[in-house]
Amino acid sequence: MNLLDILLAGSTLGGLYGLIAMGLTLQYGVARIMNLSYGEFLIAPAFLAYLGVTAWGLSPILMLLLLLVLPLGFIVQWLVYQLLLTPLVRRTGSGPALEVDSILATFGLMFVVQGVMMVAFGGNYHSYSYLSTPVQILGSTVAANRLLVLGVAVALGLGLYLLLTRTRMGTVVRAVSVAPRFAPLVGIDVRHTAALAFGIGGAMVAASGVLVSMFLPFSAAMGTMFAMKALIVVIMGGVGNLLGCLVAGLMLGFAETLVATFIDPGLTLAVNYALFLGVLLLRPTGLFGKGAR
């Protein structure tokens, strides 16, 4: 594997990790709820894409990602917040009790969703072939689906950034994230905004699930692994910081690629946690956390 192969593989994996983490950091940064079922809502759209391609003959990009998965991911996570988490918010407010209760609630939801997928698809790994043809770039060979995944991940991440920084809705979301206690003073409905952020995060993780399914085998039990990696990226980058998610995701992607190429693929999880601990020792609040400025 030459330098260009490493750059392409690391940027594809890192960009995908960054995109996955963006949805989680948005949910936690605005709603103050750590969604432990996040990974399961990544694997579920992957199975939907698998069915779409193998059983229905649909394109995972045009039909599933743009027309079905993004709106469905938004609606499902919006409903999770409204039906499961809003009663907890009303009962506990926004203090430490909410964090404890929401962790327990989403932990239980994780097993419910995982159990449904286990019954429907079993515990085996699944995959499908989509744009797996090789493409030559400056003497390096890469699968076309990996390039497509990288391009879509960049487009979705840029779209989310522009949504949050260039629109009135994004200004409202950022206001609740920075000062939830004072947002009602200017007429902002905090719970409505939190539900909106939860839905946007759901759209991001659903899109990520489709992208994962295009070039990686997956199973019903893999959600926890992706949730842990997303949490690592969120904390490394700084909670609530989209740029931090991108930088930390790329760091993780390149670290995994280098270790898998030159040392041992079985050590990729170990290097994840080593990098995570190293960043926390130097920057306890994350690379772009408030304490790091």
Output the keywords.
single chain; 293 residues; mainly alpha; two-stranded antiparallel sheet; 10 helices; 2 strands; transmembrane helix; BCAA_transport_permease; amino-acid transport
- The percentage of residues in β strands lies in under 5%
Spatial shape: globular
Q: Tell me the distance between the termini.
A: 38 Å
- Give the radius of gyration: 19 Å
**Distinct helical segment count:** 10
Task: Write down how many β-strands occur, each being a DSSP E stretch of 2 or more residues.
Answer: 2
| Average pLDDT for all residues | 86
If strands are numbered along the chain, what order do they take across the biggest sheet?
Answer: 1-2
pLDDT < 50 runs, ≥5 residues: none
State the helical fraction. over 70%
Keywords: Amino-acid transport, Cell membrane, Membrane, Transmembrane, Transmembrane helix, Transport
InterPro entries: ABC_transp_permease, BCAA_transport_permease
Membrane topology: Multi-pass membrane protein
Family: Belongs to the binding-protein-dependent transport system permease family. LivHM subfamily.
Task: Explain this structure.
- A hairpin with a 2-residue loop joins β1 (134-137) and β2.
- The protein is mainly alpha-helical and 293 residues long.
- The longest helix has 33 residues, at 60-92.
- Strands 1-2 form a two-stranded antiparallel ribbon.
- The protein contains ten helices and two strands; from the N terminus they run ααααββαααααα.
- The chain crosses the membrane at residues 6-26, 38-56, 62-81, 102-123, 143-164, 194-218, 230-252, 258-282.
